[in-house]
Amino acid sequence: MSSVPFSIGPAAQAAPVRPPAAQEAEAVGRPAPRPAAPPVPVKAEVRELEFHYGDFQGLKGLSMPVHERRVTALIGPSGCGKSTFLRCFNRMHDLYPGNRYRGEIRLLPDGTNLLASAVDPIEVRMRISMVFQKPNPFPKSIYENVAYGLRVRGEGNRRAIDDKVEQALRSAALWDEVKDRLQDLAFNLSGGQQQRLCIARALATDPEIMLFDEPTSALDPIATASIEELIADLKDKLTILIVTHNMQQAARVSDYTAYMYLGELVEFDTTERIFMQPKRKETEDYITGRFG
Amino acid sequence: MSTSRAGEDLAALRELIGRHKRRDVMFGIVGLACMMVGVVTLIVLFIDLLIDGAPRFSWDFFTSFPSRRAGEAGILSAWVGTLLVMAVTMVAAVPLGVAAGIYLEEYAPKNWVTDLIEINVTNLAGVPSIVYGLLALGLFVYALGFGQSVLSAGLTLALLILPVIIVATRESIRAIPGSIREAAHAVGATKWQVTYDHILPYSVGGIMTGVIIGLARAIGETAPIITIGALTFIAFLPAAPVQAEFPFVSGEWLFAPFTVLPIQMFNWVSRPDTAFHANAAATGIVIIVATLAMNALAIRIRYRIRQRIKW
Amino acid sequence: MANAHGAGAIATGGAALAAPTRFAHRRSRHIKERVIEALLFLSAFSAVATTVAIVAVLLYESAAFFEHVSIVEFLTGTEWTPLFENAKYGILPLVAGTLVTAGVGLAVAVPLGLVTAIYLSEFAPHRVRETVKPFLELLEGVPTVVYGYFALLFVTPLLQRLLPGLPGFNMLSAGIVIGVMIIPYVSSVSEDAMRAVPMSLREGSYAMGATRFQTAVRVVLPAAVSGVVAAFILGISRAVGETMVVAIAAGQQPNFTLDPTESAATITAYIVQVALGDLPHASIGYQSIFAAGLVLVAMTLAFNIIGHYLRRRFREVY
């Protein structure tokens, strides 16, 4: 296990050297057992999360922090539950009958438990937005796609919407390509542009956390590179969780990585440590491609 | 961009969501109400018919000919006529429709002729039924000289339900996976053998559904039969198809004048004398029970097939 | 297409099979296949033949009609009195009656059918949908003559209590019943279109914090709009071509009016009226129903072309 075939992103390498906010996070009160986390504020705290659909248990007692303004990657072989886990954060599972959660995901600093049945999934989704595996723009204009979240919130001020749309498209690095055809149908964009449009759509409502569910799996390498670049830029502003089955991608974009297997969290740590010196044998086997 | 929400911000958000959710609940109620309009109408219609028509139900009602006196009139000639017309319709429409469905699904090459046929099948399904009546009046009744007979009526309704049977046949054939065809071809079957030994038996349930729905529709059809000039007052039965003397079968009934149940009902409903309305209602019950029973059977078969067959 | 009598060959001992028999066998099999294919083709082609026959019969009889009546008078005249001494053949009153009853029907069926479809597709719990849908399908199966009875003897008396001056035959009652009758067509086709909208679009909307209603109206309905338009067109065709309800409940007197509370004959009701009488074959009266039928077909065709155009404009592009 001498060499690891990945280059670790600069952000991850910088990870151990932490800004001062660390004490702040300690003050919020974290639960006892968790992996040696660097002193970065926590945006969400997952505790003993279980998820069932029908008789099947999809997630088994997951606990980990999600660090603020960092990228956390969820990796693992397909079927390990990483997407299921991600979709707990915005209660997507509530759309389908027969799904049950146990445990909690506390969103900080207000401490709302996202999974509590008293908490409205719509409220959760307004605070935490999501970008899907395949680009799924609505059959509307580019402008209306980005404005959708604002309209859903009842925003009526045309100028305010204009500003937000432009701001979101700029943040998604799409503005220059579409500014002259905002009224075009979104389907006319290329796959990579569509995905950036979906990112702009998710950004326009100022989410606290953004979830990415294998956002580049339907894209070509060039479009993938631009999305990855975008994610690196976005983490200055918000907290990001990304599911990926591409380990190089996890290594390139993330600061923290969680390795999951069969619905369990095998190991969570900084990306650097997960890739360079994993503590668990299973993680090491998966990282080095000896999984099986 | 805010990275966390202040308390009052969150309160405003919750208030907004509450408003939106109330709209959800309201639409749920409105939607349920709209959906129930159809269902309630069906129930009210049936109860209305029962109240009006139930007093007329008796054995005599089914065994009497129409009469000038409402209390003595019955539907003997009408239900016999309906059965005879349906027999002709079935014999004409089922083989033709199934064959057409098989051709379009299994044989048809991709060319303009096939496109033309497909467009026509789709369009025919949308042609108002009375137009079929006009076609039959010009073609069957006069040009071919079948007259205002059971045969003309049966053929008219056959044309009318042909698209239903074709579409049902195609859909159920399409559900059969290609691997079945390949398997049959691989053991040396010809195209027709594959079709006859495999495709047809496996799709028979879906075809049956289409045939039943088509016939149920044909039983209730009134306009095209009126148009070809079915009589509304028939106090006799056509010659029986089976005779006591040689050659024992007779096609005479095919060319006999006739009436059918919906026409009898229409006739009674149109009379100013309200005493006949009870007869109309009783006839309506007979028609509605027949068509609903057939439709229910078809729906049932369809749901059963959907559950049973998983390729 | 290998060897269909392979099994037979084995049974009789493959080597014993002489070449000529084998060849003859194959040829007869080939002929049989071709004959079957030809028969199947003819069956399918009957659809085309039917269309041609409809057009031919309508045109042939109408041509005879238009020898006596000028097309301009027919299309622009506002009096339809074919049974009078001084017969007038202006189709407009019948067209007006047809459009008014169909219009009332649509005013009932489009909102109810659309809301029902949205409810069934996006709101109804699985159990409700599975229970109610067969009922709606049954509604499609009720014969129109029964609806006619219902319109004349149940709905009209009911309406007369609300609108005291309403005549016993009126287009309002017939139109309402036609509307209820075509709800299932509108709702089932619209619902199919909405259910065909991929789940990923709904997820995209829900993930933005949208409610069910917002998702249904702002995302699913726009995405399914071409199918919904098709459903409306189907509904219009049904309403325009509906015969028995109007023949029974709307009256038989041509009446050039757009007021649904009046009594008026439609194109279809006129055809029924003539067919019930005993006008001699090849008389002008007999030919006039074909001309009327031609107008009816032209109207449904026009609606279908409009529908086709609209559908192309709003084609799904998920």
Describe this structure in words.
The complex is a heterotrimer of chains A (about 290), B (about 300) and C (about 325). Chain A is an alpha/beta fold. Chain A has a single domain, classed as P-loop containing nucleotide triphosphate hydrolases (Rossmann fold, 3-Layer(aba) Sandwich). In chain A, about 35% of the residues lie in helices and about 25% in strands. In chain A, strands 6-7-8-3-9-10 form a 6-stranded mixed sheet, sandwiched between helices. In chain A, strands 2-1-4-5 form a 4-stranded antiparallel sheet, with helices on one face. With about 300 residues, chain B is mostly helical. In chain B, about 75% of the residues lie in helices and about 0% in strands. In chain B, helix 6 (about 150-175) crosses helix 8 and helix 8 packs antiparallel against helix 11. The radius of gyration of chain B is 26 Å and the shape is flat. The two termini of chain B are about 50 Å apart. Chain C folds into 2 domains: about 5-70; about 90-315, MetI-like (MetI-like fold), CATH 1.10.3720.10. Helices cover about 75% and strands about 0% of the residues of chain C. The radius of gyration of chain C is 27 Å and the shape is globular. The two termini of chain C are about 40 Å apart. Classes of the chains: A alpha/beta (about 290), B mainly alpha (about 300), C mainly alpha (about 325). At the B-C interface, helix 1, helix 3, helix 4, helix 5 and helix 6 of B face helix 2, helix 4, helix 5, helix 6 and helix 7 of C.
